[in-house]
Specification:
This protein is mainly alpha-helical. It has six helices and two strands, in the order H-E-E-H-H-H-H-H. It has a two-stranded antiparallel sheet. The longest helix is centred in the middle third of the chain and has 24 residues, at 86-109.
Length: 147
């Protein structure tokens, strides 16, 4: 084991990046350390995702990101981590888009939508847009008075 002097967070991140193999597992010499991946392929993950949406449809339950993560037997953070891997990126992106579409449709049909809006803002980057008209119309009346 070699001692490395780290002067700032950027150097720390570079060193960590160099220690990771292409699957994102940390390397100790030539041996990967850390937890092995739960899914060996995107196809295997897609089967579980399809089952999740099918079960939601049968039970008339909502599609949620947390529900998706639970169906995959992982946490929301694990789902985010998996989406950073090239092999799983498209699979997870499509599944999250399906959840997002479900929520968008609910916005149109439901009268109480604050929870849906919260979810879209926090999980999908939606933002409120405020427009401000800053134009000023003033008239100045000048009167001259004779003394």
């Amino acid at each position: 084991m070699q001692n490395i002097e780290i002067r700032n967070i950027r150097e720390f991140r570079i060193i960590i990046y160099k220690l990771q193999n292409k699957e994102g597992e940390y390397m100790d010499g030539n041996r990967a350390v850390g937890r092995p991946l739960k899914y060996g392929s995107a196809k295997e993950m897609q089967e579980k995702i399809d089952l999740y949406f099918s079960e939601c449809d049968k039970s008339k339950g909502p599609y949620t990101v947390t529900g998706l993560a639970l169906a995959l037997d992982m946490s929301r953070q694990d789902l985010i981590n998996y989406s950073s891997k090239d092999e799983f990126f498209d699979t997870i992106k499509r599944a999250k888009m399906k959840v997002e579409e479900y929520l968008e449709k609910r916005l149109i049909n439901d009268s109480s939508c604050s929870g849906i809006i919260f979810n879209l803002k926090n999980n999908y980057g939606w933002k409120d847009k405020t427009e401000v008209d800053a134009s000023v119309n003033t008239q100045i009346k000048v009167s001259l008075i004779d003394d």
